[in-house]
Design brief:
Blueprint (H helix, E strand, L loop, with lengths): L6 E7 L6 H9 L10 E5 L17 E5 L8 H11 L3 E5 L6 H7 L4 E11 L3 H7 L1 H8 L4 E7 L5 H9 L6 E6 L4 E3 L14 E3 L5 H10 L8 E9 L8 E8 L8 E8 L11 E13 L4 E13 L7 E2 L3
Parallel strand pairs: 1-4, 1-5, 2-3, 2-4, 5-6, 6-7, 9-10, 11-15, 12-14
Antiparallel strand pairs: 7-8, 10-11, 10-13, 11-12, 13-14
Helix pairs in contact: 4-5
């Protein structure tokens, strides 16, 4: 079967009236981006502001509207592609639709090249307070967050804290009411010393450490860590193996999950599921059948029985 040509997709997310349409209008009117090849603009949310195709850099942009979430599916998207034959696709996504719905609907050869969250600096913290799950949903996979209409006294520290609770890697930029633009340059020091002989992970910092570890395991390879965790044992595990971790809440109670790591230890048979221990272990990155692939693998140096932490669920706050 002939493989379809890859089509780059540029995804713009954000809530209603955040400025997505304005940003997309400017993008398609920029001759550095819009160089004349056939493009398809898919609009999943129609706000007060409308597109003005006469201002686009070229007469090369076709537009389709998806009003109902049920109409977002692979068949509909493939039909749009067959109709317009675009070389690039831009999507203005509905802020109240979960991002997984889109990713599950994209045809296999549609590849997300860039995901940008557009937000209103004046309403972002309110949206986060009242619709945390939707806000986190849009933050977790974006590469950039651009804040429109930012006042000069914007609460950058609080906004930074919210974003880094969901995404430690995305760029953060502010377009001020004066027309000036600036990037957030607040540093994000980790709450533990990764250069210490033994990296001490406190009960409050497990979620931050686990995320940092999974995002960049290389900086922990060969190092020794100490943390408290709850044990998971299973008859299918190799005899000298157990899993240790914490339950982590990233957004809300609905997404609490057990985030564990494989540990090799001759003392594994003495442990039982739901035991709390303080583990000191050396970390490697290697293949293990529990992962079915390469992953972070701990080797016990020392373990001690421990009392459960004050909070059984680790968070990013």
């Amino acid at each position: 079967m002939r493989q379809r040509k890859e089509v780059p997709v540029y995804l713009f997310t954000g809530f209603l009236e955040a400025g997505k349409t304005k940003t997309l209008q400017e993008t398609l009117s920029d001759p550095d981006f819009n160089t004349g090849e056939p493009m398809l603009l898919i609009v999943c949310e129609e706000g007060v502001e409308e597109f003005d195709p006469s201002e686009f850099a070229h007469d090369n942009v076709s537009m389709e509207v998806i009003e109902d979430e049920e109409d977002l599916n692979p068949a509909a998207l493939l039909s749009m592609e067959a109709k317009h034959r675009p070389e690039r696709i831009l999507i203005e996504y509905n802020g109240i639709w979960m991002i997984d719905r889109l990713y599950q609907s994209l045809p296999d050869h549609w590849m997300i090249y860039q995901e940008i969250l557009i937000a209103d600096a004046n309403t972002f913290l309110s949206y986060n307070k009242n619709m945390r799950q939707l806000t986190y949903d849009k933050l977790q996979s974006c590469e950039s967050v651009i804040f429109n209409r930012a006042p000069l006294d914007v609460n950058m520290e609080e906004i930074h804290k919210v974003i880094r609770g969901a995404n430690r890697r995305c760029a953060i930029g502010y377009e001020y009411v004066t027309g000036e633009f600036a990037y957030d340059e607040i540093e994000d020091p980790l709450p533990f010393d990764i250069n210490a002989p033994v990296i001490e992970i406190t009960d409050d910092d497990y979620a931050v450490w686990y995320r940092d570890l999974t995002e960049d395991v290389s900086k922990y390879v060969g190092k020794t860590v100490r943390f408290k965790g709850i044990v998971a044992r299973d008859e299918q595990l190799p005899p000298a193996t157990f899993v240790i971790g914490r339950h982590v809440m990233t957004c809300c109670v609905d997404d609490i999950s057990y985030c564990g790591l494989v540990c090799k230890s001759i003392n594994a048979p003495r442990l039982h599921t739901k035991d709390w221990i303080t583990l000191t272990a050396k970390l490697a990155f290697e293949y293990h059948p529990v992962y079915g692939n390469q992953g972070p693998v701990l080797t016990e140096v020392k373990m001690e029985k421990a009392l459960p932490p004050a909070s059984l669920v680790s968070t990013f706050n």
